[in-house]
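Figure 3 (text version): structure tokens given as input.
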């Protein structure tokens, strides 16, 4: 398992199981690796083993990957279960599929959990593994020159490197392969704008630690609209984000269109690809916007290492403050009152928005990032 060279012929593989947990953002950051897997096993049936969403704002992975051709189906993984009947049912389903190769694309959860996963999949009859995050594959690398940690998407590419190489900043490797039906649905959703250029914003997030606050978003959008008077505003997110987005968008001086809950994730991506600029926190819509090549101005907390969840491509500006408790990994921050993200000002985000809008796709991602 520790040998990263292939001990099998990919051309002979007929069935591949890809193990990837998570929802919207977690699925999008795996896109480059999934493209590599597809190129390595073009004739194989590829299925995704993933969890069902546990939050109203967290769409299932299939909602992002369906019709992309990157996978042909999914299996449900009951996260955290120790129920022997559920595990036996999953094992039976995997054995019935008879995968010859497992591609491991899930974040490391410790050596004991990793060993348990490998034992389970071997018991399911799988003998060939790619991407098991042992050694340096289990950690994002640090680049002292830029002060950034390796993107999680780039770490995944290192994990699947035996299958082929890919550039994490080449947006062709982030292609969702949106269908004509999805593009038409986006055109219909944007029809009320009459073709006007627009800014997109997704202020909602399922994670309390990443929530900048609706008052801040309202103030920011009011300021941005003063600078972009002839632009409309399109708000995106889950149905549960509608009220927050409506409140934030009320300060926009021009036309606003609240599409929260109206579109699938893929239809949302089709809408976002038409935007001149995206504004938001570290959340699912940010991942979709960046995958479509839209310049983003983003507010980040410091719960993770700087750079791991930064967007790919060019033209992005991230506002993030270092604090003494950075890297806490908390999803809910009570004791410190979210002092990292709460310290980001509307003025800083306004400057970031104007920079991202003006620089657009001409700005090299390796240069962006604010402290």
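Below: residues designed for each position.
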């Amino acid at each position: 398992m520790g040998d990263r060279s292939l001990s099998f012929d990919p051309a002979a593989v007929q069935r591949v199981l890809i193990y990837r947990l998570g929802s919207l953002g977690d699925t999008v950051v795996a896109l480059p690796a999934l493209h590599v897997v597809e190129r390595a096993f073009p004739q194989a049936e590829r299925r995704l083993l993933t969890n069902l969403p546990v939050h109203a704002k967290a769409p299932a992975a299939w909602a992002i990957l369906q019709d992309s051709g990157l996978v042909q189906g999914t299996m449900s993984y009951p996260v955290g279960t120790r129920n022997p009947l559920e595990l036996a049912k999953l094992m039976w389903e995997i054995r019935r599929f008879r995968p010859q190769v497992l591609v491991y694309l899930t974040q490391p959860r410790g050596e004991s959990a990793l060993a348990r996963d490998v034992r389970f999949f071997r018991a399911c009859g799988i003998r060939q593994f790619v991407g098991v995050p042992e050694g340096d594959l289990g950690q994002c690398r640090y680049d002292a020159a830029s002060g950034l940690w390796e993107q999680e998407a780039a770490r995944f590419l290192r994990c699947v490197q035996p299958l082929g190489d890919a550039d994490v900043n080449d947006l062709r490797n982030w292609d969702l392969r949106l269908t004509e039906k999805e593009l038409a649905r986006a055109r219909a959703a944007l029809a009320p704008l009459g073709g006007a250029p627009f800014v997109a914003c997704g202020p909602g997030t399922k994670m309390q630690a990443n929530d900048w606050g609706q008052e801040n978003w309202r103030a920011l959008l009011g300021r941005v609209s003063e600078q972009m008077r002839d632009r409309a505003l399109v708000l995106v997110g889950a149905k549960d984000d509608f009220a927050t987005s409506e409140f934030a968008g009320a300060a926009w001086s021009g036309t606003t269109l609240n599409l929260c809950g109206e579109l699938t994730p893929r239809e949302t991506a089709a809408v976002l690809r038409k935007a001149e600029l995206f504004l938001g926190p570290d959340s699912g819509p940010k991942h979709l916007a960046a995958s479509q090549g839209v310049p983003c101005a983003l507010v980040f907390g410091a719960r993770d290492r700087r750079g791991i969840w930064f967007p790919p491509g060019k033209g992005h500006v991230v506002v993030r403050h270092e604090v003494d408790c950075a890297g806490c990994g908390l999803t809910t921050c009570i004791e410190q009152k979210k002092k990292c993200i709460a310290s980001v000002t509307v003025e800083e985000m306004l400057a970031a928005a104007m920079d991202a809008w003006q620089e657009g796709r001409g700005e090299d991602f390796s240069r962006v990032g604010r402290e």
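The CA atoms of residues 319 and 370 lie 5 Å apart.
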